[in-house]
Amino acid sequence: MAPTARTYLSKALGIMEKHSLNRHKLDWTAIRSKAFTRTGAAQKPSDTYPAIRSALAALGDHHSTFWDPEQADEVLGTPTSTFDDLEGRSLENGIGYISLPGVDGPTETHDAYVRQGRKAVAKADGEGACGWVVDLRRETGGGIWPVLAVAGPVLGDGTVGMSVDADGDRSVWSIRNGAPYEDGKSAGWSAGRPLSTSRPPVAVLTGRQTRSAGEAVTVAFRGRPNTRSFGEPTAGVPTGNAAYRLSDGARLILTGAKDADRTGRTYDEPIPPDEEVIKDPRPVARRQDAVLDAAQRWLLKQAPCHRP
To answer: What are the Cα distances from residue 52, in Å, to 192, 241, 244?
Structure first.
C-alpha cells in the first residue's frame, strides 16, 4: 500500500474510533485489520473508499455514511433558496399548520430555509391560531438547527432535548425567544416571532420517512405540555451525526450521539406516535389525510380550540 493511501485510511479509522457512538462496544483491532486487508495494495485515497464504507457499516449504528468528494460537493455546494414542502397555512376552526421538510446544504441554504419557514409560520398564525399541527412526515434528515429555528416559537422556550454521546456527556438543546441554542450558545439565528396564543396545544405528525434530524425534532416535542403525536413510527435512526472532512474533500458522516428528550430519556429505535394512524393506501383515499384529520379532531377538543 502506498503511504498516501495508508495515511488516509488510518486517519478515517482514527476518527471512527474516537467519535463513534458505539466506540466502546467494538473490536477496533479487528476493524482495522479487516479494513487494511480489504484495501490491499491501494495507491491513492479513492482506493480506500470501499474499506471505509465497510468499516462504517461495522459500527452498527445504521446511520453513519461516507460521501466521496463529488457527493460532498453536490450536497454542500450550490445553495438552495426555496423549499417546495415547507409551507404554512390556516386550517378550519383556527388551527395553524406548518409542514417542515428536511434541509441539508451550506449555511446559505439553512438561512433561506429559516426565512421561508418563519414566513410560513407567520402566515399560518395570521388570524391567531388556537392550536398547531407540525407535520414532520417529510422531514427526512439533514440539519436540526434550521428546523428548530422555524419550529421554536411553537415549541416554546426552555430545554427541549439533548444529544448524549458514548461517555454519557450531554449537549443540551434549548429555545430562547423562539430561537435554538446548543449548550447555551446560539445556533445562528435571531429571535423568532412570538405566536398569537401562548403555549398552544400541538399535534405532531410523523411517518416512516421521518428520519434522523426529523426524529430529533420529534424528540424535541416529547414531554411538551398539551402535545400529542399522530401517524406512524419514525424511521428508527434518532441519532446525531457529525461531518469530518478528509484530505481529498470527502466526508465521514459519523453517528456520535443518541437523541434524548427534555427528561433525559434516550432513543435508539423507531419512535411510535401517541396515536397510530395508517394512511389508507386505496386509490379512492388518495386525496384524504387520515393522520391530519385525527390531529384536528384532537386539537378541537383542547380548550383553546374548543367551540361549544
So the answer is: 41, 16, 13
CA-based nearest residue to 184, from 162, 212, 153, 216? 162
What is the grid cell recorded at 113?
Answer: 430555509
Please report where in the chains the cell 383515499 appears, as a residue.
285
Give the helix/strand (H/E) hosting 32. Answer: helix 28-39
Q: What is the pLDDT of residues 248-265, one digit of tens each?
A: 999 999 999 999 999 999
Position 284 pLDDT exceeds 80: no
List all residues 6 or more positions away from 200 whose beta carbon is below 8 Å from its beta carbon: 129, 130, 131, 132, 154, 226, 304
Domains of the chain (ranges, CATH numbers): 3-60 (no CATH), 87-239+257-299 (3.90.226.10)
Question: Are residues 241 and 255 in contact, defined by beta-carbon separation less than 8 angstroms?
Answer: yes
172-187 pLDDT, tens per residue?
999 999 999 999 999 9
